[in-house]
Design goal:
With 239 residues, this protein is α/β, with parallel strands linked by helices. It folds into 2 domains: 9-45, no CATH class; 47-235, 3-Layer(aba) Sandwich (Rossmann fold), CATH 3.40.50.2020. The protein is built from 9 helices and 6 strands; from the N terminus they run αααβααβααβαββαβ. It has helices spanning 6-20, 40-45, 58-61, 83-93, 97-111, 130-136, 140-152, 170-176, 210-220; strands at 72-78, 122-125, 161-164, 185-188, 198-206, 226-235. Strand 5, helix 9 (210-220) and strand 6 (226-235) form a beta-alpha-beta unit. Helix 4 (83-93) packs across helix 5 (97-111) and helix 5 (97-111) packs parallel to helix 7 (140-152). It binds zinc ion. The site of zinc ion has 9 residues, from helix 2.
């Protein structure tokens, strides 16, 4: 019997690893062959928004009269039956951070081809409360941001926004009142890092828009900031 060379051992190792952790579709658990996280069958059921091709679209429309948005887009429309729903669940609750990175990379490649996002200078993920992040092990928006960053080659600024506990002192309470409608309070921590920049604020989903509005307003309060936003998915009203 011929001795196995090092590369063959490596192949064997990869094969065993694949047996233990097979590469499965996040939409349906079928085994995957390609490099994306959805199989071909699920990919036919995904509903890409293509919003990134238009400067004004049904994503940016959600913020009319609420927030000055340069460009905005979700990658997919979201409904209860979509494979996207399952992918978001895997990302948020099943420790599948890789899903966020892979979708981010793919969306980033699409964004890089359009002029609307060309002058974005940095990516800011919507923060999780630190205790929740410790429990989950990661912030799903920051993971998505990391994938985007690899494709559009812009840095991720994770310490600009924070999600903080509601404080009980009266003065702090008043200042934070306008953010209470989302049930959480955000704080701007490092305005010096974003002054004059075009920022890409990212979250996993757009539903009511209250979270993005709260974070976006804080970012826009800094001199010269321009704001664009992207999410993995967008809830379609009435679906
Ligand atoms: Zn599938």
């Amino acid at each position: 019997m011929l001795p196995l060379s090092l590369p063959k051992w490596r192949d064997l190792g990869a094969g065993l690893l694949h047996l233990i952790y097979p590469n499965l579709c996040v939409g349906c658990d079928r085994e995957l062959s390609g490099d994306y996280c959805f199989c071909l069958i699920c990919r036919r059921q995904l509903h890409e928004t293509k919003q990134y091709l238009e400067p004004e679209n049904d994503f940016t429309e959600r913020f009319w009269g609420r927030l000055q948005v340069e460009s905005g887009a979700a990658m997919y429309y979201f409904n209860r039956k979509s494979p996207v729903q399952r992918a978001l669940h895997q990302l948020k609750y099943k420790n599948q951070a890789d899903v966020g990175v892979r979708i981010g990379r793919r969306f980033g490649r699409l964004l890089a081809r359009t002029p609307h996002f060309a002058d974005v200078e940095a990516i800011v993920p919507v923060p999780l409360h630190s205790s929740r992040e410790r429990r989950r092990g990661y912030n799903q928006s920051a993971i998505f941001a990391q994938g985007l960053s690899e494709s559009i080659r812009r840095p991720v600024l994770e310490n600009v926004l924070a999600r903080v506990q509601q404080t009980t002192t009266q003065t702090r309470k008043k200042r934070m009142e306008r953010f209470q409608n989302v049930g959480t309070v955000f704080a701007l921590k490092r305005p010096d890092r974003i002054r004059g920049k075009h920022l890409l604020l990212v979250d996993d989903v757009l539903t009511t828009g209250a979270t993005l509005e709260a974070c976006g307003s804080l970012l826009l309060s800094v001199d010269g900031v321009r704001l664009s936003m992207v999410t993995i998915a967008m809830a379609v009203q009435g679906v």
